[in-house]
Amino acid sequence: MKTVAGLLLLGVVVSTGIRVMADEAAAADQAPDTYKVRFETSKGNFTVEVHREWAPNGADRFHKLVETGFYDDCRFFRVLPGFMVQWGINGDPKTQKNWVKAHIKDDRVTQSNKRGFITYAKSSQQNSRTSQVFINFDDNARLDADGFAPFGQVVDGMDVVESINAQYREQPDQGLVQEKGNAYLDKRFPKLDFIKKASVVKEETPADEKAETEKANAK
Fold it and tell me: Are 148 and 86 spatial neighbours (Cβ–Cβ below 8 Å)?
């Protein structure tokens, strides 16, 4: 017959194990302190550098979305010259359905919404951010007081970002984009620019650099 002490010890072990697994899961979802994401688009390529200390929750979610391929084949469905370009609704409604209510907690605003800075779209409700993001075309500091927390900035290819097709402005219906995905956008707004692929940039290690040098010298 198990003693009370034995049962208590078992409870502590199980509780500790669950806590360790939760901590490991949280660590797995945590993004690097700084990382870059390369966007290959129908207009060319641009690179965003993310700083986790600016907005940890936003940086972690963005890293996860990129790593899972969520942004691949996404359309730039809202483009307002002088203001911003927005994307982040997956082209497959089945995939989008898994993320539409996957809210993350608000981050404190530590950076201003300056030209080239990237920020999550959100509603007026608390903790409403999910997967939609935008890049500021201009200095939009007025957004700071409303809780729009930048988590990174464009470090290469801002000219590409500014060349994204703006002819449809805000015409695409976001509800229909959520419901029908790219099928709706391709039919009604066929000239929208889009992301071919988004990927975290691999930082070369000294060993990688040495291998590339030796490979070049061998030619």
Answer: no
